[in-house]
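Risk mitigation, structural track. In case the binding assays with zinc ion fail to produce interpretable data, a predicted complex structure has been prepared as a fallback.
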Amino acid sequence: MLLLEVLIEHATFSLDRPFSYAYHGPKKVEAGYRVLVDFNHRQSVAYVLNVTETDKAVAVLEEEKGFSIHEILDVIDEEKLLNPELMQLAEEISNAYFSPRIGVLQTMLPPSMKPKLSSLKAPKIAYDCYVELVDASEQDLTDHQIEWMRLLVREKRILKKDFKSPSILKILLSKERVKLAYDEKQRLVLPTFLEQAPKKLTEDQQNAVDAIWNSKEAVYLLEGVTGSGKTEVYLSLSEKVLAAGKTVLMLVPEIALTPIMVEYFIRRFHGRVAILHSELTPAEKYDEYRRIARGECQVVVGARSAIFAPLDNIGLLVLDEEHVESYKQDTSPTYHARDIAIMRGKHFGAKVVLGSATPSLESRARAMKGVYHYLALPHRINEQEMPETTIVDLLNPRNLDRESVMFSLLLRERIKATLTKGEQVVLLVNRRGYAPYISCRSCGHVFKCPNCAIALTYHREDGMLKCHHCDHVEMMPDKCPECGSKYLSKQGFGTEKIEEEAHRLFPGVRTLRLDSDTTKVRNRISQTLDAFRNHEADMLIGTQMIAKGHDFPNVTLVGIVLADIGLTLPSYRSAERTFQLITQAVGRAGRGDKKGIAVIQTYMPTHYAVTLGAKQDYEAFFTKEMGMRKIQQYPPYTYLVSLTLSGHDEEAVVTTIYSLAEQLSKQLEGKATILGPTAPYIAVIAGIHRRVILVKYKKASDISEAITTAIDVLSGKSQIKLMVNVDPYDF
Ligand code: ADP
Ligand code: ZN
Ligand code: ZN
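Fallback model:
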């Protein structure tokens, strides 16, 4: 019989150890397969870590080991899910991010391959069924049957659905002259683009390519202003890497938002490219994953989770727009794609290129210290001018338009002028929904989420109130539950309200909206962006989604409705986020040959994130913000890890976190600073109370033991859950 050591699908620290099962069946099973087991009287999926053959009886083994060993229910897979490099990576990630191993595997694998029960229902392989010849002898066959046999001899195989006579097929199968064969069907059809010859590189581009190609360094920061031609650098390097027989992993923040990158790669490398796209169906993801694993493509373009693509022999890993926060996962394992790229790069001796016009402070600081090799592309290819920007102070009543709350006089006038010229407008509204705050005009009652105690947002499109922190939704009431008044006021604004205002102020304007509400529908992002690019609308209204690297040549005006929304949130990164958002948004204006303008509305017109963002002055912002981080001892001057405890019983959570803080302070004395415990920004989500401790440290090796101990101690408590976030952005 076989003795299996498996990880159970439940991603908690207390179960993060191997469990033993027996298997007497005929199927093949090895490390890296999934099996179905009974765990605590529940059917669960488990991932096999290790298989040993033994002659001993189960009873003997149970006696020896001191626990009972059950037979598995079934073997799920027919081949290994992960190759040795990825298995080792899973181990590394589990250690670096203090994450249960099974949770890491669930993160790394596509939906239908995840080791968990729900994934077994996810669509997996679509098959084409073929009829194939086994034995061409015509003995004992009727003429009709022989006719089919001869056809098969010529064709070798025929699709079963094209085999017009089921009765003949049945007989041929029973006589074992033919058999059925199943072939995986490739469902994803990539768009075809004409092949494109490489552009002649500019001197700057050539220097960057040579510097990376000829150097022995591992990680490069490619800082190139928008329009400096970073993509051509990635393409040129990819070509060299492929010519050397190696593979390329190209990451972008979100495929649907940057279709142009996919287009460039397909044009240059054709059938060698696989795309891992968030809008793919689970079956399509599975197909692409398998195609990559089989070595059928050598270039993978994808978003964050594509960093786990099963490419072998990687020669180059690129993160475009490396500063974008969507590269960081905020659930366990709380990895950043940049760090995983560096881990995989090290394994393969590959080059890692981080590209951005406005690098994250961490990356730029590392480049300044020589940890990353710094390269710059300081010029725009077409010497295009940067857009002209104006900051509008919303505190000054003279700037306001009496007919509108959100559109200042200047913004309204500029929009009108732009629309008159037949050019397009992008409006950035960093909040979705209609109104973030509903209250009763008579008694002042505010509608709050019953779980999180924060104000509910009114969504007009579906007439509901929604919580933006948990998934609570309720119907918009027609009267106040406290006093019965029918006068409810919708305060503040979100994308829906701005769209409504735009129609009132600019009659006849054609608008499109893009936020996470509209993108619940598959392919909606790309459809909306295509429609806007084809000028089917005059105005695109959306959240930060629209600020990313799109190229809309006819957009000459960008309006930021309220630039400082993010600045009021308690995060050490709020200035950096605001700066990034403004520079990215402003950069959308005037990408074609027409000059762009940008209008930035704010209540904080003198805040450095706003003024420097408007000027697109990265250097000045970097210097200023590094100074702030140094004073407050935040990254990149330190590293952070947050430990969040959560549970239904608030008192238990509080008591536990205080003793945890005390224990950590003792263990980490002189090595790290412990901040808290405090209540996080949102202290209750869905009835679960939360408290957080922040550990600031300089060296990971100083703290890992203490954190591991904390995990061990707490894994015994079933009522309290611990979440460890390495390099958290919010806490
Ligand atoms: P970035 O990503 O740095 O903002 P892109 O890679 O989008 O810049 O390049 C900006 C524009 O310049 C694109 O339209 C691209 O096709 C063009 N371009 C890039 N390199 C060259 C080159 N060597 N010669 C001509 N055009 C180029
Ligand atoms: Zn009321
Ligand atoms: Zn809520």
